[in-house]
Amino acid sequence: MTDAPPRRVVVVGASAAGLTAAETLRREGFDGSVTLIGQEAHPPYDRPPLSKQIMSGDWPAEPAVLRRPEDLRALDLDLRLGRTAGALSTTARTVTLTDGTEADYDALIIATGVRPRRLPQFTADGVHVLRDLEDALTLRDRLTAGGRLVIVGAGFLGSEVASSATALGARVTLVEAAPLPLSRAVGERVGTHVARLHREHGVDLRVATHVTGIETAAGRVTTVRLSDGTPVPADDVLVAIGSTPNTEWLAGSGLTVADGVVCDAYTAAAPGIHAAGDVARWHNPLFGTSMRIEHRTNAAEQAMAAARNLLRPAQARPFAPVPYFWSDQHGIKIQAYGCLRDHDETRVVDGDPAQGRFLVAYRTGRSIAGVLSFGMPPKAIRPWRNAVATGADWQTLTEDRRGDLTVSP
Ligand SMILES: Cc1cc2nc3c(=O)[nH]c(=O)nc-3n(C[C@H](O)[C@H](O)[C@H](O)COP(=O)(O)OP(=O)(O)OC[C@H]3O[C@@H](n4cnc5c(N)ncnc54)[C@H](O)[C@@H]3O)c2cc1C
């Protein structure tokens, strides 16, 4: 980018992060051209309902659109939906689309998100992944009372679909390689409660085992084989084993890609080029570490930061959020602030685990690194956000809140 303020901004990826970036540019008074390029034909829509309200049938089979058509029009965008960015030239400052057209920019925001990882040996009718609306509707149409769904991976996505599918009456087997669901993300204590929740709701949870292959008949999956040789009958299979950032189109651009677009603390990947949302790996100065976060709130907050920093590089501010996520499983709301992975200790600080409703704090070193609310009213967790943001001293903050000192297995 030259020193002159940008007149043409191109945003690639028209979902939570891309739309928020475009909106923020306008809200900040940017009156140049904004081109928003999105691979999906739908206007920007929200993904969290795909595994929850849309999967369970509580909401209609329509995209949960993020903005009304008139609000989208008011942004005065060059909106290119159903179009894919294929290459980036940072010297010519051009995005080349796969249809051969181009979009020239003075400044660029990359918001291309992630796509589901697949299992190469799992290719047959009835094998699904879940990322977009079509994925959700295809799977939902297959879920019937008594139908047999095998879910590979008990992370957030797998656990949420297990919850929605059992609510519809499907027979769900949830297969997880770790000893507990979600344990890598939220630790053993919470993983124990998630496992209990699944089993109480009729999910056949198989842990410490992995899938080795499928059997088919007439091209359709019939059985999933587990590592101990057990066959699990299946009408459908959902592979929910994580995601891969959509960065292939940046090959040869000179940008650094390492499990995401590598950015500095100001969300900049290069002068005049920022990244936001699930695809962005940036240095979070609050925690002093590089992060890539696949959560809805981060996509919006990071896109706002990227748009502002791109417009006013001289006044750029580091993007230093306290990560936040929520998840809904079997009627229980889980919410969390901070960094929960690789913690040293957890402690229940409110509620009662025996009642299945509690608040748990996570210690890393001497500080509170995170806090998670399981089935508690939403307001219970809010006062703890600041403790995480300031890295409050663990001992001082938790010593008079020892509801349960037993660290779960
Ligand atoms: C089923 C499901 C449930 C979820 N539930 C929760 C939840 O409960 N709580 C929570 O915090 N988070 C949840 N998430 C995560 C949340 O939805 C994501 O963090 C958020 O969507 C990220 O937004 P994004 O804009 O960065 O990326 P995405 O939403 O992935 O959007 C990226 C867009 O870029 C497009 N694109 C990719 N490559 C190109 C290209 N080369 N050219 C043009 N366009 C391209 C893609 O098609 C896509 O539309 C859930 C996600 C899923 C899939």
CATH-defined architecture of the largest domain: 3-Layer(bba) Sandwich
CATH topology of the largest domain: FAD/NAD(P)-binding domain
Tell me the number of helical segments per DSSP (H or I, 4 or more residues long): 10
From the N-terminal CA to the C-terminal CA, the straight-line distance is 53 Å
Q: Uncertain regions: pLDDT < 50 for 5+ in a row?
A: 402-409
**Lateral strand order in the biggest sheet:** 3-2-1-7-20-19
Helix content: 10-25%
Strand content: 25-35%
Radius of gyration: 22 Å
Q: By helix and strand content, what is the structural category?
A: alpha/beta
What is the count of β-strands? 27
CATH class of the largest domain: Alpha Beta
- CATH homologous superfamily (4th level) name of the largest domain: FAD/NAD(P)-binding domain
* Shape, per Cα inertia axes: globular
Domain count: the total is: 3
Ligand inventory reads: flavin-adenine dinucleotide
